[in-house]
Amino acid sequence: MSDLAINRFTADGVDGAALTELVDMGKWRWAYVERPSGTELTWFAVLADENEPWPSWHHARLFNETAELAWWQDYDGRFTCRLLTSDPPTSPMWQPGGRYKPLNLTEKQWQPEATLLHGRWNGKTDPPTWSEPRVPRYLAYPVPTDAELKTETRGVLHTAVYCGQDVGDVLTRYVSVGVWTPTGGGAS
To answer: Which pLDDT score, from 0 to 100, does residue 184 have?
Structure first.
């Protein structure tokens, strides 16, 4: 286990143009986005190709294996943004810890978790989709193209939960999306 430190940076009162700048600074692999008309978990590149303005998503989490950028739209139309990363951010917009107490955690203090996503793989592979009786559409999860898929395969969201020294110092960072097959022995 390495000594990867995760630092939390926040930026308050961010406007749409600055939010777009922050998004452009990262090398994101996956995106979880929300707005009143829907929620998506997809490849970042696919979402970026749709050319929708980033501020049109009221809440989002862009992530890769080592960092996450999240934002929430405030009542005034501006955004509160959070960056979880081991690298120092390059934008002066970030304030260490923001309005919160600074939080620096090492890898030894986090627990990896896997959350199974809705649906079972339905045999479609371009892109792979899952069906769930309670959801009136197929679900497409951004899984690796070389993933071995079987009928009982489920999508899985890998997260890292960081716990600090004080009560309430808990953060969950999205890490990756993959597949899980019960007969295959676990998540990949």
So the answer is: 47
| C-alpha distances out from residue 52 to 7, 29, 33, 134, 149, Å | 29, 17, 12, 28, 31
DSSP H/E element including 46:
helix 44-49
- 1: DSSP letter: -
Cβ density class 102-136: b for 16+ within 10 Å, e for less: ebebeeeebeeebeebebbbbeeeeebbbeeeeee
**Short-list 188, 180, 174, CA closest to 33:** 174
> Whole-model pTM?
0.82
Q: Residues in the chain with pLDDT < 50? A: 1-3, 100-101, 184-185
Asked whether the bond before 136 is cis by omega within 30 degrees of 0, the reply is: no
Given this model, what pLDDT does residue 104 score? 62
- Residues ≥6 apart with Cβ < 8 Å to 158: 112, 113, 114, 174, 175, 176, 177, 178, 187
Give the SS3 label for residue 81.
strand
Beta bridge partners of 110: 162
